[in-house]
Amino acid sequence: MSFGPLPKRFVTLFFPAAVAALLLAGCSGSETPAAPPARPPMPVTVVEVQPQTIPASVEVVAQLEGARETEVRARVGGILIKRLYQEGEAVRAGQPLFEIDRSSYEIALAEAKARADQAAREAKRLEELLDTKAVTRRDYDNAVSNHEIAQAALRQAQLNLSWATITAPVSGTTGRALKSEGNLISPGNDGLLTSIYQLDPIWVRFSLAESDVAKMPGGRLSEAGITGVELILPDGSVYPQRGTINYLASTIDPLLGTQQLRAEFPNADNRLMPGQFVRARLLLGEREGMFLVPQAAVLQTDKGRLVMLADADNKVTPRPVQTAEWRGTDWVISGGLKAGDKVIVDNLMKLRPGMVVAPQVPGAAPGAPAGDRPAAAKS
């Protein structure tokens, strides 16, 4: 098939457009867009871990209590007229704390003394008459008995008067007064006035679950296997002095499944207070080959705990680990690490396995390699 000559108008429009298309195709083929610059490795802080020997321990919640917590009670009744101490202050044994109205007890003492004197005179008179056989031996014996009874009543009246002044039975720190001036005091259940706490030494009471006891050597807890007790205070600090066990229950509580313990701590500065909740760390000897890793470096997953390592090529490698307990701000790692591993401690949420990172030690200048130490460490 053949076509006739193209119209002049078509040729005029077609050739300029074709030339332009060829020119554009040539330009696009000769110039390739530049690739975006590669991202530099992410800087991360690493800790090079080494095996250590650390104390074996178990931590539990504990509560402090006074070594002596003594109730101060009224022995006689009456109107409380005076409180003789400042609440919360230290007192000594025998120091007056409260005063009950003494007037009725003074009167009772005067009456008892008069009866005792009368009975003494009567017994003496009958003793003289007995020699002349003017009275019978029975009359004389009754008089002697009445004298002894009167003397006992006198002694009781003296005690009642002395008990109107309520003193501290032991030395220690006083609690809040439970009765105020003007209250009618009755001996017995209504006679509790305050309590006194002996704070030095102070006791800490806690218990271990049966499952924790089963993990210990021999499957049981003994005082010989406990090397000491530490206290972790509410602010996270460790009390500077260690305590000793002064009570270890010989049975497991059938209701709670726990074994009760109590430890004693020196408390000369009264830093520890009764009722305070702390954590007791029971020291059970030493464990070798343990690693300490900052708590922030340990990740919890549905398959267990793991850490991120920087390998020899500075690539991120996840590593499952077995954890024991916290020690200060660190996790105690009992398995999964080896000497010289570089554990990444920051930017963990941005890391992916195989990612190249730029490790640096804590405190190093930005960009310093992991092998370099900060200037302060070199000096």
What are the SSEs and their pairings?
Blueprint: H1 8-30, E1 42-48, E2 52-73, E3 78-83, E4 90-91, E5 96-100, H2 103-131, H3 137-163, E6 165-167, E7 172-174, E8 184-185, E9 192-209, H4 210-214, E10 228-232, E11 244-248, E12 258-265, E13 277-294, E14 299-301, E15 304-310, E16 316-320, E17 322-327, E18 330-335, E19 342-344, E20 357-360, H5 375-378
Parallel strand pairs: 1-20
Antiparallel strand pairs: 1-19, 2-9, 2-13, 3-5, 3-8, 4-7, 5-6, 7-9, 9-12, 10-13, 11-12, 13-18, 14-15, 15-16, 17-18
Helix pairs in contact: 2-3
Summary, kept brief:
The chain has 379 residues and is α+β, with helices and mostly antiparallel strands. The protein has 5 helices and 20 strands. 23% of the residues lie in helices and 36% in strands.
- The secondary-structure element order is HEEEEEHHEEEEHEEEEEEEEEEEH
Averaging pLDDT over every residue, what do you get?
83
Number of helices: 5
State the CATH architecture of the domain at 57-66 and 197-286. Beta Barrel
**Helical proportion, percent range:** 10-25%
Give me the secondary-structure category. Answer: alpha+beta
* Low-confidence regions: 9-15, 17-30, 372-379
Radius of gyration: 44 Å
- Overall geometry: elongated
What is the tally of beta strands? 20
Oligomerization category of the chains in this entry: single chain
3D structure, described in words:
There is one protein chain. The relative contact order is 0.18. Among the domains are: 44-54 and 288-364, conserved putative lor/sdh protein from methanococcus maripaludis s2 fold (Beta Barrel); 57-66 and 197-286, Efflux pump adaptor protein, beta barrel domain (Elongation Factor Tu (Ef-tu), domain 3), CATH 2.40.30.170; 102-163, Orthogonal Bundle (Helix Hairpins), CATH 1.10.287. It is elongated and about 140 Å long. The chain is of the alpha+beta class. It has 5 helices and 20 strands.
